[in-house]
Input
Amino acid sequence: MKFTVAQIAEILDGEIEGNPEAEVSQLAKIEEGSPESLTFLSNPKYTSYIYDTKAGACIVNKGFFPEKQISTTLIKVEDAYKAFTKLLEFYNQVKLNKTGIEQPSYISESATYGENVYIGAFAYLGENVKLGNNVKIYPNAYIGDNTIIGDNVIVFAGAKIYSETEIGNYCVIHGGAIVGADGFGFTPDENGEYKKVPQIGNVIIEDFVDIGAGTTIDRATLGSTIIRKGVKLDNQIQIAHNVEIGKNTAIAAQSGVAGSTKIGENCIIGGQVGIVGHISIGDRVRIQAQSGIGRNVKDDETLQGSPALNYSDYNKSYVHFKNLPQSIQKLNNLDKKLNSNG
Output
């Protein structure tokens, strides 16, 4: 898809220096540009590239004035980085703007959907499913019975949404994610054999939530597993039954949260973090990668380690841990010296 520099400048409310009729069809780094590409310059350390770039057009700050000749057309804006981000969002919307119902796909007679939906080939919509406006269900996705999905939601290929799930507006669920599978509920009988505890709750996902590829969110045993507004979950995360994650919290890949734990708002949790069940984590908590959390955490704590310690305490302790062999050797030498003098 091609756009002229004039069209892009109109979207960004920018000023053109160069050829407004130049056409671009792709986005690129400034050092990798081609005549068909659009790039941007916001970081001063990349300024040298603008004099050699082959990009057809470049977004720059209004305060930029070239010191020597350039071949690229400039689009001057207040903030080049923000403008380029806006353009990425626009490009993504255009790229994903599919509509219609492909065949073969299965849509239950009791399912309903709004305007401008896209349902890809081999997708499945179960009984009493309700889709809002501008929903995109990509091929091979599964939407279970009685699931409700709001407006402007994207469910990418191969995602599985189990029955009774409720999803708000402007959510993105990436391929391979599974929402609403049974929680890990088993109890041993008198013979030590595990009997399954029925998981009859559901999952509630509020507005503006992103769920990464391969991430799993279990349904509640009773009640709901709840992902609050604005939560961002990376790829391959496990969220267990009856967990609640507060709004605007972000969790990086390969982390796991055990059952019935409550995580507060605006937390940042690094990759490969393990969090035990039935605890509470406060608001604005920071947890470093590969930490293990086995206790309640207060608001504004920053933790690291396994089991996790206060971040500054962990760093102080780690200095001693690195020097432990030398310290042991010194103690042994001192012990030998004392024994020889004894």
